[in-house]
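Dock DLL; give full complex structure.
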Amino acid sequence: MIWNEQYETMPREDLEKVQLRRLQDLVARVYARVAPYRAKMDAAGVRPGDIKTLADIKKLPFTTKEDLRANYPFGMFTVPLEQVVRVHASSGTTGKPTVVGYTRRDIDTWAELMARALACGGVQRDDMVHNAYGYGLFTGGLGAHYGAEKLGATVIPISGGNSRRQILIMQDFGSTVLLATPSYALNLADTMADMGVDVASLKLRVGIFGAEPWSENMREEVEKKLGLKAIDIYGLSEVMGPGVSMECIEAQHGMHIFEDHFYPEIIDPESGEPLPMGEAGELVFTTLTKEAFPVLRYRTKDITRLWAEPCVCGRNFVRMEKVTGRTDDMLIIRGVNVFPSQIEHVLMGIKGVEPHYQIVVNREGALDTMEVQVEVSEQVFSDEIKTLEALSRRIQAEIKDLIGSTCKIKLVEPKSIQRSEGKAKRVIDNRKI
Ligand code: DLL
């Protein structure tokens, strides 16, 4: 279902007019009200009046996570705190979290966009939405919650954790839609198997999974284990939270960016130069309508590419490819760039290997070494040592095809890799930076 026909199917020409008007308003607002934006724009020699076309966006300076940290917690807000009705924060692995704020109108817009996203993913009013995204400072839980309510579905605000109870609730309440990180969805599938619950006895039909990278092979795995259609949802706290872009259930191919609210660019992460449509690079967003915490050309560090070909669903928004990884998660193993999701893609394509893995990176002398630890099925684990060795060699060879060098493979017994209740930790990097 298309939630907002007017904007989602708007001809591109008209959409661009809306975007330009909103962009000009935004630039004038942040220049007048936010000292760090004004300082950066002055340093770049650009004034709000210089934004005459959408292409002029290139004149504006980028915003980075470091800018947000330097102005922690509220220094980049555009409105006085009394107009801020909610804050969220992204945990961040290092340093202080990033704090984001919302006015009443921002919260309404977010609910509207999340309702739009859920409808795009095939969620309907009569669905029972099992929301296992974490509630709290993380934007996943509350963001999805208000969207599902706005859509008119019934929400079970279960949050993450206590997996056995989640399964009982799914059985008793008849959950039809599961919202969770893909890794937690797998964790729930395992719990179901442990409890002897047959997935066919549940009513699950759609899973809206995001907040971390997951490969196409992982999609197949989750769909099979949970008996549902798995749809990708993308977002980040600095730009809003979940609901920035969303895959449609019709194509399940690429996430439509809600461009009437978020203006995307793809840049070369090294030079910062914009790249042409279709090329892979770092995704950059400018929020066109946010009030409390808008961002100008925010560097997400996420690697993807965009395309504008029409979609079977009828939406006119550009699509972004599944995020391969983040520039700061990219491993450089003996000079070759590799993302954990590429390793995942290889692993999930091999029979007998379970979708639970961890990558351990070490530095020996001047060389980076990588060990891939992956669980194998109960049956494989109890096989003869020869079979295990053959499996290990096969994984090694396929990863070598990918990265050009040999890494260590450690096949581990079922359930030995730590399960996640939110975002999975895929990489343990022991290198000293
Ligand atoms: O993860 C918001 C969210 C919640 C999205 C629930 C989807 C569902 P943050 O905690 O700020 O916000 O983390 C944002 O997570 O920059 C990406 O690196 C990653 N990410 C989010 N969605 C996807 C996805 C939420 N579908 C960061 N695929 C982003 C790959 C994703 N990575």
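Observed: The chain has two domains: 1-326, 331-432.
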